[in-house]
Amino acid sequence: MADYLNAATLFDLAREAEAHVATPCSCTKTPLDGWQSQPLSIDETQFEEVGTLMPEDDPEPTFSEYLPGKTNYWAADAPIAPRYFPYNRCAVWQCSLCSRIYLRYTEGGGYFVDRRMRLLQAALIEDVPLPA
């Protein structure tokens, strides 16, 4: 299993990656600033899993979302709150060609499964505690 990344570690990883991003790259054909279904054009062989936001000691993380104000799940500026859904179910993947880091999880419904991706942006990471 991949190493667990807390919010501080995730922030440091994001800042480091953003400082070394090489552009352009084929991993960015589809804008992934907000959650999107994983594009079919993604070449998974150029990605490496660098961690997880799924705590090993929490077999059923919350489905509560952290969406303050008028933001929504799909918004490019929605906060990335690692303790909240869907982030608490994400794997963290890095492109080996350009250093960009993406969050990935699988959304499952009654009749579908949708692998979703979002670009990790340090400025959007918020370490918000879960309500007691």
Question: Brief overview, please?
Answer:
By secondary structure, the protein is mainly β. It has one helix at 7-19; strands at residues 36-37, 47-52, 91-95, 101-108, 113-119. It has one domain (7-124).
Give your account of this protein's structure.
The protein is built from 1 helix and 5 strands, in the order H-E-E-E-E-E. It has 132 residues and is mainly beta. It has one domain. The chain has a 5-stranded antiparallel beta sheet. The N and C termini lie far apart (28 Å). The model has no long low-confidence stretch (mean pLDDT 92).
The percent range for strand residues is 15-25%
What distance lies between the first and last C-alpha atoms, to the nearest angstrom?
28 Å
Mean residue pLDDT: 92
Largest sheet: 5 strands, antiparallel
- What is the number of E strands? 5
Q: What share of the residues lie within helices?
A: under 10%
The number of domains is 1
Radius of gyration: 14 Å
Order of helices and strands: HEEEEE
Order of neighbouring strands in the sheet with most strands: 1-5-4-3-2
Query: Which regions have little confidence, pLDDT < 50, spanning 5+ residues?
Result: none
The oligomerization state is: single chain
> Would you tell me the structural class of the helices and strands?
mainly beta
General form: globular
Helix run count:
1
Please render the helix and strand layout as text:
Blueprint: H1 7-19, E1 36-37, E2 47-52, E3 91-95, E4 101-108, E5 113-119
Antiparallel strand pairs: 1-5, 2-3, 3-4, 4-5
Annotation keywords:
five-stranded antiparallel β-sheet; 1 helix; mainly beta; globular; 132 residues; 21% strand
